[in-house]
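Input record (one chain):
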Amino acid sequence: MASRARSPLHRVHRAHSGYPSAASLSSVITGSRALPPRPRAEEGTGGTMASTARDAPAKPPAPHPACLRWAVNISRWHPSDDHDGPEFRFLLALLPEHEREECLRFRFMDDKKRALVSRLMQRAACARVAGVPHADVLLRRTKGKKPFFAWTEMAGFDAARAGFGAAPNFNFNVSHEGAFVVLASEPVAIVGVDVAAPGQLRDRNRRGAARSVEEIVNASRDTLSAAETHAILRDDAGATEAEKEDAFRRHWSCKEALTKAMGVGLGMELKRASFAFSRECSANDARAYDAHVEVDGAPKPKWRFRVERFRAPATGDPGERGSRAFPEEPSQARDHWITVARGPTEDVTDALGAFRNTWRAPDAGREDDAAWRAVADAPAPPFSVLTVGDLVPSEALDAFERAGGEVFGGRRRGSTV
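The corresponding structure, as predicted from the sequence alone:
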C-alpha cells in the first residue's frame, strides 16, 4: 500500500522486454484470436469482431471477449439451511481452504453469500478467459488487496495460447454491496469496479432520524471536493433528496472504482480525486453517466469512468437472466449504481511487483495516443445477470444439482464457464 505522502499516480518502469507496446494495442482490441463462447447469460453481448465485405455497412465493433461485465443478485439466492446446508457447503468446496475460511468468517448470512459468490465469480472469469480448469486458477492479492490472476505462478501455463494471448494485461475487479456482487474484467486497461447500493448511507443522527444528504455531505468534507459538494447538493436546481443521494452515491462509487483500479486501498486521500459527470439517456430514462476525473486539480484524460444504474427486481418480480436488471417502472429504492473505471498501467500501485509481472503490455497508456484511446474507449458489454449456477464448473453441475443447487437450461455439461 502506498504511503499518503507519495502520489499514487506515479509512473512505473517497464517491467518486461519483448512484449507488445502501446502502439500495437489497437490490433489487440480488434484482433481475431477468439476466446471460447460466452455463457448463455451473455449471448448476443460480445465476441470477436468479424470481418465484413468492403461494400457492407460498417458494424459497431464488438466487445473484446476478455471484457466481461457480470452481476449476481444474491437476494434471489436462498441456499437451504444457510451456510450449513449442502448447497453452500458444495460451493465452498470449490475454493481453496483459506478462501473457505474467509467466507465463513462473516457473521451474517448475506455477507457470507457475497464473499462466496465474489470468489466463485473471480475463478469462473479467469477459467473462461485463460481456458484453464476452474480448479487450476491461482489467485493472489497485491499488498493493497487488489486481486489478480497469478498465471505466472501456474506451472506449464502458456500465456500465448489462443484467447489469453489476445488479452496481454488481463485483469479483473469485484465489488459487492446490497443485492449485487459484480465483476468487470479488461484485456489491456487496468480495471476497477464498485457497486453502491441504496440505503447504505442512512444511519441515524443524534435526534434518531435518518440523516439528510446535506448531513451526509457535511460529514464527508474530507473526501469530497468543493465542486463535488456543490454538484451533489444542487440547491438552486430544486433536486429532491433522492436525487441528491443518487448523486452522492455516484461520486462515492467513482472514487472507490478509481482507488480499486489503482490498488491503493486507503493509501489515497479521496478528496484529491474530483469527479464530474455527463448524462446519457436511454429510452427516455437517465440510466448511465460518463465521468471524468481531476487529481490534485489536474485532469487525468487517460482514465474512463462509466456509471450505470442497476435495479434489483422487486420482491415477487420474475426477473430476467442475461438482461439488464431494472424494470421500466421508477423505483429509486432499489437502484444500485455500478461504476467501471479503465486506466493506464502507470497509475497502478503494486509494491511487491507480482501483479505487474503478469502484464505483457506493461506500457499500456504510457502515451495518450490513438492506440491508448482505442483501448480506453473500446466497447464493453452491458452487465449480464448470472445465477450462482452459472459460476459452477460444467463438470460439477450434476453434483451441484444433487446438493440442491439450481441449474438453468443453458448451463449443461459441455458449456463453457
